[in-house]
Design goal:
This protein is α/β, with parallel strands linked by helices. It folds into five domains: 3-69, no CATH class; 92-269, Rossmann fold (3-Layer(aba) Sandwich); 275-352; 363-440, Arc Repressor Mutant, subunit A (Orthogonal Bundle), CATH 1.10.10; 444-652, Ribonuclease Inhibitor (Leucine-rich repeat, LRR (right-handed beta-alpha superhelix)). 35% of the residues lie in helices and 14% in strands. It is built from 23 helices and 19 strands. The strands form five sheets. It has a seven-stranded parallel sheet with strand order 11-12-13-14-15-16-18. The N and C termini lie far apart (93 Å). One of its GO terms (molecular function) is ADP binding. Residues 113-288 form the NB-ARC domain. Residues 374-448 form the Disease resistance protein winged helix domain. Residues 1-39, 73-100 are annotated as: Disordered.
Length: 688
Amino acid sequence: KSTDNAIENATLVEVGSSSNRKRKRTNKEPAQTTADNTRWDKAELSNRIIKITSQLQLQGILWAFSKVLDPHGSSSASSSNHHQPSTTSNQHAKTSSLAPREVYGRVAEMNTIRNLIAENKCDALTVLPIVGIAGVGKTTLAQSVYNDPRVKGHFHHKIWVCVSRKFDEVMLTREMLDFERHEGSPHKNGRHEGISSLAKLQEILKDIIEYQSKSFLLILDDVWDSMDDHQWRKLVCPFVSSQAKGNLILVTTRNLSVAHMLGTREPIKLGALENDVMWLLLKSCAFRDVNYEGNQSLSIVGRQISEKLKGNPLAAETAGALLRKKFSIDYWRIILKNEDWKSMELGNGIMAALKLSYDQLPYHLQQCFSYCSIFPDSYQFLGEELVSFWMSQGFVKCNNSSQRLEQIGQCYLIDLVNLGFFEEVKREEPYLGCQVMYGICGLMHDFVIMVSRTDCASIDGLQRNKMPRTLRHLSIVTGSAYKKNQHGNIPRNNKFEENLRNTITSVSELRTLVLLGHYDFSFLLLFQDIFQKAHNLRVLQMSAAPADFLKHGFEEVDGSFPQILSKLYHLQVLDVGSYTDRTMPGCIDNLVSLRHLVVHKGVYCSIATIDNMLSFQEQHGFKFHISSGFEITRLQSTEHWMHVDTLEDVYEAGLVSNEQSEKLHIAMEGEDWEPHWDLTVLKISLLL
């Protein structure tokens, strides 16, 4: 049949009246066409398009007219909702209900707020931020404060406003006045109706606040970073001038920078709930009964699910809603196996809430955060390590020639910490003192794997998913595949090697390759064989994972130094800290783009052609052996650590006057130098 006949014979059947109309084609004959007999009746086709367009326009007019007649959507709600899909922010505004809710955990935080309110009788205005990632319970805690009988007696006025992403002083002031009127304020005559002037609206609000000089509680829920300090000062101007004492503004926000900008007190930071508390919350959501002790099989699976929710209350509500649909052990096991609570399709779920935060990031921060998905969820980074990774991939952009890329990258990291994507962990390390590490917060790691799956992947165990052709960043975690036997040896794992061969089909476009964990020598040979053509690598990390991974059994690896370095001309970051060979291969001279090098503290180097490595910047724990073929003066652009024999070497190298050097560490070592026990002062004089 020709195309026009096929169209003529096709009938569009509408099912229902929603915008998600299902259309099915009922053909009298198969609508198959070929290039040779295709004929188009342009006039007929044009008429059909005009007719369909008119119908769509009419439907839009009818929908708009129905909204005028029924602005709250009370009738036909089920059929009209999908005409105008609600955004996550709208959903949040609706969920900022003030109905009392049970709060699980947060006893310490609630007591902190109560004590502050009870003791805060002198200050005219206190701003207390509550900060945390999406779904952690900021709004729920604020609701609990609002409804707490012990809090109620301290305030004459209580106002609740959901701010969300658009910070509009006029709109927010009007909402405060609307709230006061609906709550039965003595000034409930609606004097603000029709007024659009911020000054006049605030004059009315100030009049209400100062009525009998009573104190007030203002809760600003879900404040984003869409305002500046000037806008904030304008908004709170009526409250600042109040004569009453003990006034409190409670602010909930995902952004630590916002909390620091607005707060007059240190913010309350909400972290993950304990597993036992999460189980109580999940029982409440799934069974509607926190004391449920019925089906023990369901309880066992439920506990396993609660432990996977990583302490996030919204995740518990999301999972509980799914579990409540069917009290079947098989159904619950499917939920557990598939981790269905992570679905992006759940509009009110935890992943949708996290995605809202992610979507607000500028593109360069999205790149930096997504990149970290190749590392395990409990991995902790050093700040310098993270920045070096981002720089190697070109994520860090320099718009000001006076700023170094390292400084800009550190600003990126601070932004991601303030926005809740990373958390700081301070730990004491031998010889190094207090170190600040960075880890991805809770369910954020599960989320980032979902949004980065086209560019990033991690192989852990015997998974058999083919790597996408768009893959650029890959990690291989061997901890579950290689375990020491009773003799302390690591036996070969043929299945894991076979899986690696079948999974990795192309390596030429890889930009990052990370190997974490221990393995045997056969795996090392296979690794080097598979990745010998990965010539575009910018990052190569083959070290035992730092920090917490050591206690999980990832230990240092002895063996020949990796031989895949000879053609890595683009490599900028090389981390081979697990290798204890006393020398490095001569092919390291080919790494002309290298900027960052991490090696074991016991490795000594004698590299006569180090000056070929023009971009070389860091040598963490790297000791340079001063030999006849090597001059320290060739390293005037280096930073951090360098082994020298005398202070004259430091002067000759020009390190003291080098503008690019930020740190100079002079260490005395060896048995030949021992200070006298009576020595109280060591003076190093810099002759300028």
